[in-house]
Amino acid sequence: MILDASTAPDLLQKAVRRFTDAGSSAAAFAQSVGSLAFVAMDEDEVQGWCWGYRLPRPDGADMLYLHNLEVAAPYRRRGVGRELLRSFLHAGARLGATRMFLVTGETNTAARHLYESMGAGLATQGPTVNYWFVLP
């Protein structure tokens, strides 16, 4: 189940604890203008998460930036990442964004396959790889 964590700081805090060693300001992030976050849950277990921002542009068109998408090892290759990405893209489109970009590592083949299979266009490639999505 994919849940919108932008409106649930406790759920976002749970994902932060699962995937990072850092302290959390999940509540502050959830209240930040333009923040988007989704958490994949299986009963009480956090399977994965993604987060990023809706960014206004001077030409009036909004775009999305996906900063992080991560799935816990036991849940990989089960469609969790795909559903998180789909939720993020749809939320951005509902908010008026027309494009999304992200950056991933050149050797992160699993992520690259996911992005390309969901329609991402390759923008640049080097030690990091940039992708663009056109939103419906």
Automatic annotation (TrEMBL):
Domain of life, source organism: Bacteria
Domain spans labelled N-acetyltransferase: 1-136
PROSITE patterns: GNAT
InterPro entries for the chain: Acyl_CoA_acyltransferase, Bact_Acetyltransf, GNAT_dom
One Pfam assignment: Acetyltransf_1
Keyword Acyltransferase: yes
Protein name per its UniProtKB record: GNAT family N-acetyltransferase
